[in-house]
UniProtKB/TrEMBL annotation:
Signal peptide per UniProt: none
Protein species of origin: Brassica campestris (Field mustard)
An annotated Gene Ontology molecular function: structural constituent of ribosome
Membership in a protein family: Belongs to the universal ribosomal protein uL29 family.
Chief localization: mitochondrion
UniProt entry keywords in alphabetical sequence: Mitochondrion, Ribonucleoprotein, Ribosomal protein
Protein name as annotated: Large ribosomal subunit protein uL29m
One BP term from GO: translation
Keyword field contains Cytoplasm: no
Cellular compartments annotated: Mitochondrion
Domain of life: Eukaryota
Any one Gene Ontology cellular component term annotated for this protein: mitochondrial ribosome
Length: 100
């Protein structure tokens, strides 16, 4: 577990520095180019040294979601599923290290 976390953090930090800075925090957390599908379970953008909170967009209104096509809703659901899995992975890592 420790080796995976250490190697994953180092690898992901290098990948994050190689990415362009033009993307917003919200877009960067949802759109990633990962060589390994398991990389999508770890957050690239934030380091422990940052004190700034990440700025996210507003929530979707039901009326806006009703106007979306089935394909758009399916893509949105998949993005939200990946975000949930990333958060659950981070939670599991903290619990394994008795930090939570």
């Amino acid at each position: 577990m420790f080796i995976t976390r250490f190697v994953g953090r180092r690898f992901l930090a290098v990948a994050a520095s190689a990415r362009s800075e033009s993307t917003t925090a919200a877009a960067a957390s949802t759109v990633k180019i990962a060589k390994n599908p398991l990389e999508e379970f770890f957050e690239f953008d934030r380091s422990q040294d940052e004190d700034k909170p990440v700025v996210y967009g507003r929530g979707w209104k039901a009326s806006e979601l009703r106007l979306k096509s089935w394909d758009d809703l399916q893509k949105l659901w998949y993005v939200l599923l990946k975000e949930k899995n990333m958060l659950m992975t981070q939670r599991q890592m903290l619990q394994a290290q008795n930090m939570m």
